[in-house]
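Teaching assistant's notes for section 4

Start the section by putting this record on the projector. Ask students to predict, before seeing the second block, whether Pyrroline-5-carboxylate reductase will look compact or extended. Collect guesses on the board.
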Amino acid sequence: MTIAIIGAGNMGGAVLAGLLEAGHAPESVIVVEAREEQAAALREKHGVRTLPAPEAVAEADIVVLGVKPYGVVPVLESIASSLRQGTTVVSLAAGVPTSAMEPAVPDGVSVVRVMPNTPALVGEGMSAVAGGAKATPDAVAAAADLMGAVGKVVTVPESQIDAVTAISGSGPAYVFMIAEAWIEAGVHLGLTRDDATTLVIQTLAGSAELLKSGTHPAILREQVTSPGGTTAAALGALEQNGLRASFLEATRAAYVRSKELS
Ligand SMILES: NC(=O)C1=CN([C@@H]2O[C@H](COP(=O)(O)OP(=O)(O)OC[C@H]3O[C@@H](n4cnc5c(N)ncnc54)[C@H](O)[C@@H]3O)[C@@H](O)[C@H]2O)C=CC1
Ligand SMILES: O=C(O)[C@@H]1CCC=N1
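Reveal the predicted structure now:
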């Protein structure tokens, strides 16, 4: 199985690193990257080949598109004549529907839309997969397998991809912003920045592990909240400052933006 990744920046690069970490042989992954210094860095770091797009896709069973949304259709148009029958195109782009991509590829090429996230870099990604109208079930399964190498995968109808983008695609940034604010709050309380960073990151990681155990978040929260105690005081302040409403508004804004991009 040969995989070509066109556009190996933050997201394409995370999928590349995750695939290699998961055991894909470097010889089976070809990178197409417009920035020569990025291409050189990936060759050096991962031992992958870099080729011009038409040569790369001519060899590929799966073509992963990691370019910006506005680049997706032009890239497809530029590689259309080199795509082999039976190839699966996997687009990682936000806001580009399969209905916009399918006219750019020949019949017999499946287009699958995936919304991944950057923790794919460490094998802890979250991806949602949606096949286009002309995608074969095998192609959808191949895309799910590919992303399964770098994290968890759900299959959704394409109509839900904008919601997925708002929740898990952009989601890591919400966590990182919370982490920054939380560390800074520790510094305000007199902790060293190093200690505050360790406390926050391990608290996030440990809490994520507890959440993964399957206990409902509300129960886990209650277990921390002593009546009249410190947590109740903090949660009261978060409620007063509109934490839940902020999440509703933030994810709605991302959802609307994802729709606008298309
Ligand atoms: N960054 C993220 O957390 C996520 C990004 N995405 C999607 O992934 C895509 C890429 O986003 P980022 O990685 O953040 O952007 P980026 O700018 O880091 O990466 C894009 C890469 O594509 C390369 N490129 C551009 N045109 C090219 C071409 N014609 N041929 C070969 N390489 C080309 C650029 O040099 C760059 O390295 C976007 O469509 C975005 O919607 C999806 C989910 C999460
Ligand atoms: O910000 C963006 O548009 C991309 C899509 C999801 C995460 N990053």
